[in-house]
Design a protein that fits this description.
The protein is of the alpha/beta class and 140 residues long. It is built from five helices and five strands. It has one domain (5-135): Response regulator (Rossmann fold). This is Response regulator.
Length: 140
């Protein structure tokens, strides 16, 4: 199984722990890099821009984070020449239709409401990973 790289922006420590466990429990050995807010996400990308191994296969992006929220980051990513082709999966508790629409208008590739059960989270990890790494064709 190919090892992949996923950048996860999530301010909640419990959610980070559950995501880490879900990837491991599904048998994935992917490199997961966690950042806690939008400022850290942009800093990570800029500090690693010369390393082709540090370009994520996709970004899992929480919306409600301190310092710079997911909406601001999404807009910035999709306007940046080097980052605009990185798939962004918004991963939020927000189900508001207006919010979902706004994220797609800002350039989100997918919007997923966070699962409420761990079994659902496992299925999400399997599906989203499979889609972005096995099904979708992404420009490099």
């Amino acid at each position: 199984m190919e090892k992949l790289f996923v950048l996860i922006a999530e301010d909640d420590a419990d959610d980070r722990f559950l995501l880490q466990n879900a990837f491991e429990e599904m048998g994935y050995t992917d490199k997961l890099e966690f950042v806690e807010n939008g400022v850290e996400l942009m800093d990570f990308l800029q500090n690693n821009s010369n390393n082709s191994n540090s370009v994520p296969g996709f970004i899992l992006l929480d919306l409600n984070m301190p310092k710079k929220d997911g909406r601001e980051v999404l807009k910035e990513l999709k306007q940046h020449e080097d980052y605009k082709t990185i798939p962004v999966v918004v991963f939020s508790t927000t189900k508001n239709e207006t919010e979902v629409k706004r994220c797609y208008e800002l350039g989100a590739n997918t919007y997923v409401v966070k699962p409420v059960s761990y079994d659902s989270l496992l299925k999400f990890v399997e599906n989203i990973r499979s889609y972005w790494f096995n099904v979708a064709t992404i420009p490099m």
